[in-house]
Specification:
The protein is an alpha+beta fold and about 240 residues long. The protein has 8 helices and 13 strands. It is globular.
Length: about 240
């Protein structure tokens, strides 16, 4: 009974499963951890898996500091098909033949995306305009004017190519839409493309190898979960609560 009164504080690294929104994960954890003071630092799309940084108790106050950290991903892009959401969850909008490309051709094209740039956020995103998320407008068939956002792509490596799919590893700044990079690469290659798999492997020094699945967390007691939490001062040393 005493465990029910433990107030949890800290950062929990979770390996998000596919077909779950980040909100879904938080909703499940709220019940498991028996707390209402919980959130996350950096949304993952439902299709995506991997590192979701969950903030519990007082750690929710450092959300802005962790969100601002650089991210690393691994994923797969499929050439020849564009979708309205720019990923595999969307409706196919156009199909084109894939040219005879080599891995070197793709690597050369990818280099053009490195560095500082402005990226146009997709319509299927949680960005709010006039208080309404863009994805709600997109579902109604609306196309709203939106402001490009500054991003930085530090590295984008092609890990393999078996037509029509490209495997890659990416390191980028906060706010980068990986599915938009995939879409834009398809445009550059002249055949269209969409993101068909994505996994966040790291956020700065936090790695998915340290993360727990929801199933693993479910089997832990509250005291055991407490021991898994990274103290706020350790997670964000420069911030004093």
């Amino acid at each position: 009974m005493l465990a029910q009164h433990i107030e949890l504080d800290g950062v929990l690294l979770v390996d998000k499963p596919s077909e779950h929104t980040s909100h879904d994960v938080i909703a499940r954890l709220r019940g498991m951890l028996r707390t209402r003071k919980i959130g996350h630092a950096g949304t993952l799309d439902p299709m995506a898996t991997g590192l979701l940084i969950v903030l519990v108790g007082r750690a929710t106050r450092v959300s802005q500091f962790i969100i601002s950290l650089d991210k690393e991903y691994e994923g797969t892009i499929e050439l020849g098909k564009t979708t309205d959401s720019q990923d595999a969850d969307g409706q196919v909008m156009e199909t084109r033949p894939v040219p005879d490309l080599t891995e070197a051709d793709i690597a050369a094209a990818v280099k053009g995306f490195l560095g500082d740039q402005y990226q146009m956020p997709p319509m299927y995103s949680a960005i709010k305009i006039g208080g309404v998320p863009l994805y709600k407008k997109a579902r109604k068939g609306e196309d709203v004017e939106r402001e490009p956002r500054f991003i930085r792509v530090m590295s984008w490596d092609v890990l393999g190519y078996e037509a029509p799919r490209i495997r890659f590893r990416l390191r980028c700044s906060k706010g980068t839409y990986v599915r938009t990079l995939a879409h834009d690469l398809g445009t550059k290659l002249g055949c269209g493309a969409h993101l068909c798999a994505l996994r966040r492997t790291a956020t700065d020094r936090f790695n998915v190898a340290q993360a727990l699945t929801l199933e693993q967390i479910e089997k832990l007691s509250i005291p055991e979960i407490q021991r898994k939490l990274i103290p706020v001062g350790e997670a964000v040393p420069s911030v004093a609560l």
